Amino acid sequence: MQAVRVVVSGRVQGVGFRAWAARQGTELGVAGRVWNRPDGGVEAEAAGPRVALERFVEVMRQGPRMARVEHVAEQWFECLEVPRGFQVTG
To answer: Alpha-carbon distance 27 to 52, whole Å?
Structure first.
């Protein structure tokens, strides 16, 4: 199954970014997880249909209202195990 890893930098911690990203993933029908990075960024991995994942990357570029997204890096890969649901970790 297709998957994407997204690393977002800017003002993305302390603004509800992880919970927002998990809701967006759930609404788009993708599964995965999202967590804070030690460098102040947020990282997410999501798996699902390519079209839904592309939309997920688009919304991650926007972020929630209180966030200020400065940079987004994406890495596409094939996922062997499909996660269930979308979880906030770390």
So the answer is: 10
Domains of the chain: residue spans and CATH: 2-82 (3.30.70.100)
Render pLDDT for 7-34 as a digit per residue (tens, 0 to 9): 999 999 999 999 999 999 999 999 999 9
Closest alpha carbon to 78 in 1, 16, 12: 1
DSSP state of 54: H
Catalytic positions, please? 18, 36
DSSP alpha helix (H) spans, the chain: 17-28, 50-62
pTM score of the predicted model: 0.95
